[in-house]
Automatic annotation (TrEMBL):
It comes from the Bacteria. GO terms for molecular function: ATP binding; glycine-tRNA ligase activity. Keywords: Ligase. The keyword Ligase applies. GO terms for biological process: glycyl-tRNA aminoacylation. It comes from Escherichia coli. The keyword Oxidoreductase does not apply. The gene is glyS. GO terms for cellular component: cytoplasm. InterPro entries: Gly-tRNA-synth_heterodimer (IPR006194). This is Glycine--tRNA ligase subunit beta. Transmembrane segments: none annotated.
Amino acid sequence: EGYTVDTIQAVLARRPTRPADFDARMKAVSHFRTLDAAASLAAANKRVSNILAKSDEVLSDRVNASTLKEPEEI
């Protein structure tokens, strides 16, 4: 359907198990790539991933809700 190899690889990395999920993710990633902010958001995500990969700190999956202050965080 005209998807790029990068888009397919990005979606396959999440290992979707249902065809409908795969299709929805393909459309979402394709749409994201059309956004003006896509390149800077992807670069920021890569930087954060690299920083976290070098960290020895163990991160929890739980969020301490009492530390959330801004409406965007809640």
